[in-house]
């Protein structure tokens, strides 16, 4: 190529600001949940930016959005880069969006210098990674990897009773200029830049994390059903209070699981009592458990412990117990070749780098089942994410995009056709 | 009077069945929350029954509904009998409704025999006693006793954002045949028949409870605010989880308050976490506490204990704490004269009777502030109430109405004009 492609930092930061404005919250965060009007607006902006550079825009039936910069040999499977544009209800400006915009920046950087790799390069925005509105999370990347959308996923409803299938149809229709493509096309490789969402890189002042894998995640819903009764007249002996069982269970879990294992994560994000009257002993109490561990066997052991504790306290409170698995994602290990590609790219950019296991699951977890995949982490302030206060230093965003670009260039050179340099 | 007035048991049971059909739930309970369409339908049925017997129908600005059987001296303050027609979201067929229909049965029993007491007798259905849709509960009787509706009560909204003032207006408009009367007219006395909503009378096989007073009730909302964070990546040391604080507080309360004091009641009817995403450590957790005790001083001490425990665990979890008093009702003692009136009436009917403190608050609590008031309890199966399984034996309903009628007759004789017997 004529010149070495380089990240345009100002351009990248301006794009981050433009997307942060879509669904911006008063506290400086973003509320752009999957398949909402805000999500559609962000997808439209990406499509417009792509059109302005002459890149092709495509979407599949899961509303995964692809921006394609064609290669000299269109028959070769593309190198895919990306992440997601949807956010938590009170999410940040970088979770997902940084990875999508950095991927697009790679396409533009290649275009800026007229690079002519044999292989097409694509930037992707996966649909509904967060799963906060419709379950399961990583909807788009799971559908892509599986080649289909399970019918029960289409029936998923949000808390207002809106069905995913309807919102999906409306989202696809909102981007008529995008060409349709089938789910799960062949890929050369997949690379995803993301913020760490944890405190490690910042604490060690490391610029780049070469992600070796992703810990396992299991989501459970636990419910206890007792006997509703009058709050003022029912003595303790006559009560079967499901909230007493739930509190006893959670207290024991809080005291045992995380304190005993520094790699374990246990979080209760939702809890509710029915019928929900101040002066009625509840009939039913339900809560969710988000359980994670890098080791699949340890996670299974924690799951078993949870069920044992639930059964014990349900019996003690005279309540019926139910445990439902909402989601179960095995851990993933990325191929050594891709981890090395990231380390080499970071070193060539003069960026400090260390290997790291991802505490969060990402679309790359599912892509790793169908293509050589890897991830690049950059530090975020205080490890805060899924939070309006989420923040990433401008230099860190640029460092991450630079590592992604260099990894892509290295990969394309490895896979490039011989005449490529001659042409350049 | 020509004959001694007597309860028509078949009529009473048929009325109970007719009202149970309004808002009936599949599980045999009733969902007829205050100021809903169902509530209006029940009020309309009562008004139609009154018109059929030639009784006057009146309502005040709080939508308290009065059925008046005129006395020979309309200038005398009436004897008021009644309860409420609204229910919990998953309520029973007798809580409130039995008291209203038994009061109406008293009017009909007097009419059946052409009794001519000097004093008018009225049956009342107080508005929104339950408080499950709009707070505060006992809205109608509190407004009656206070002589006004506080403006903040008018602004109350239900969970769908409907305002009480709008629903109140619509409810009043739905009964155009009812004459308007001012809030808080002078009363001779107030008597309320109600199911015990507790297990004592049934356990002791006693037909009638002569209620000596009502225990104090305090409703609190407790909230903890921490720091939302990513469930998968945030180590224990970096968490400020308000749910951990809430669970620790509730665990300590469950282990201490009720086990240590058999007269104390502590119930958590509502709990919620925000933002409510499975994979986000909550930013805020809020729950309600329904605290009760027959002794005002003990209840105050329990309240102080709650605040101490909340503050301690909030500090331990690095969270901010807030405690709001949603409702605070002092205990009430009914006058000995009224308790004796009930005991005498029960004895005259050959019904077993014992004195009892009410575990629940009732409209009579507020009426007792403006008139000589008392209550009659009848047993309910297993003490279950605020529950679709709530049940009362047909004989128990008739016994309660009989005790109420005899107490009314005794009271009217005591207060009756001399020419009353001559005329009869």
Automatic annotation (TrEMBL), chains A, B:
Zn(2+) 1 binds at residues 84, 95, 194. Binds 2 Zn(2+) ions per subunit. Signal peptide: none annotated. Its cofactor is Zn(2+). Keywords: Hydrolase, Metal-binding, Zinc. Residues 218-315 form the Peptidase M20 dimerisation domain. Zn(2+) 2 binds at residues 95, 130, 386. It comes from the Bacteria. One of its GO terms (molecular function) is hydrolase activity, acting on carbon-nitrogen (but not peptide) bonds, in linear amidines. Belongs to the peptidase M20 family. PANTHER family: ALLANTOATE AMIDOHYDROLASE, ALLANTOATE DEIMINASE-RELATED. This is Zn-dependent hydrolase. It comes from Plantimonas leprariae.
